[in-house]
Amino acid sequence: MKMDEISAVITGGASGLGEATARKIVAAGGKVTILDLQEDKGMNLAEELGENASFVKTDVTNTESVQSALDHAVNTFGTINVAVNCAGIGVAEKTYSSRKGVHDLQSFSKVIQINLIGTFNTIRLVAEHMAKNEPNENGERGVIVNTASVAAFDGQIGQVAYAASKGGIVSMTLPLARDLASEGIRVMTIAPGLFETPMFNSLPENAKTALGAMVPFPSRLGYPEEYGQLVQSIFENPMLNGETIRLDGAVRMQPK
After folding, report:
1. How far apart are CA 54 and CA 36, in angstroms?
2. Cα(43)–Cα(246) distance, rounded to whole angstroms?
3. Which of 218, 216, 251, 236 is nearest to 82 (CA)?
4. Distance CA 34, CA 78 (A)
5. For each of the chain's 256 residues, which pLDDT tens digit applies?
6. What is the spatial distance between Cα 143 and Cα 87, in angstroms, rounded to a whole number?
7. Would strands 31-36 and 7-11 be described as parallel, antiparallel, or unpaired?
């Protein structure tokens, strides 16, 4: 899929990996609808990116909210042929701790609801729109890119909820691709390692440096632009389908 033919929706698109992807698409001549709960950031980013960008305040766990955002994207830019799912949260909580007791069930459920169910909710609704597109020269009607994490494979102490949510995204990638193959829709997942995202904003610089040193090469935190670069490669290579790509500098997370 050519970048200048893209009309994308990006969940969690107001900051971090989603923002970098939105910038990449618009810079290449594509169009983007940013879906996020961060209203100020989303509106400011859309205004900065100009006429090829739009923002809709969206709750990915709510069917009506997502459907309304997708309708807005179609009404604004005529179609949706790309979706990138970056919306997500994390918690740090052990299954059981003698000091804090058992893992709170509500916090576990919230992470699953936003990260996993929110991703699927967006996919199922956007697929209906994509299926109506005219296929391009490769027979494609759409491309969906999801965001997992290396935690899906190397979940650390206190990451049981986050790892479960991201593992679910990895596990559903292939069946999603198989489900949607007859519609000409590809589905891929990226599993980022340690990246400079808002999750790390509260950390002091020496802590970020220490985290980056855990990465074999390059020994640093990843840049959101590098995530956007991989997303572009997925768009442009029609043979990439049904797979999860680790984007992590060969890091393998230790228990803590």
Report:
1. 11
2. 31
3. 236
4. 15
5. 999 999 999 999 999 999 999 999 999 999 999 999 999 999 999 999 999 999 999 999 999 999 999 999 999 999 999 999 999 999 999 999 999 999 999 999 999 999 999 999 999 999 999 999 999 999 999 999 999 999 999 999 999 999 999 999 999 999 999 999 999 999 999 999 999 988 777 677 887 788 899 999 999 999 999 999 999 999 999 999 999 999 999 999 999 8
6. 17
7. parallel
Q: Are strands 101-102 and 96-97 parallel, antiparallel or unpaired?
A: antiparallel
Which residue's structure tokens are 């939105």?
Answer: 22
For the chain, the residue count is 256
Kindly report the pTM of this predicted structure.
Answer: 0.96
Cα dihedral across residues 11, 77, 49, 227: positive or negative: positive
Cα–Cα distance measured from residue 36 to residue 15, given in angstroms and rounded to the nearest whole number: 9
Q: Which of 125, 89, 181 is nearest to 9 (CA)?
A: 125
CA dist., res. 218 & res. 80, Å (int): 35
Cβ burial 47-66 (10 Å sphere, 16+ → b, else e) = eebeebbbbbbbbbbeeebb
User: Would residue 223 show up in a list of annotated catalytic residues for this protein?
Assistant: no
